[in-house]
């Protein structure tokens, strides 16, 4: 199963979620939410099922 590296960094009230492999960036309100936001972003961008890959979050 493919795993995407995701980096999160705090910016004000938000966590910026960066997905370099697909040149993507989005945001989450909490660290816990960052995982789901990253998975949704990747699935929508690549038009693949959300359960067809994993994400590994670095940061926080």
From TrEMBL:
InterPro entries: TTHA1013/TTHA0281-like. This is HicB family protein. It comes from Microbacterium azadirachtae.
């Amino acid at each position: 199963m493919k795993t995407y590296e995701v980096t999160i960094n705090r910016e004000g009230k938000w966590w910026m979620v960066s997905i370099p492999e697909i040149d993507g960036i989005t945001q989450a309100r909490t660290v816990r939410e960052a995982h789901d936001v990253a998975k949704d972003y990747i699935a929508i961008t690549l038009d693949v099922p959300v359960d067809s890959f994993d994400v590994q979050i670095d940061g926080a």
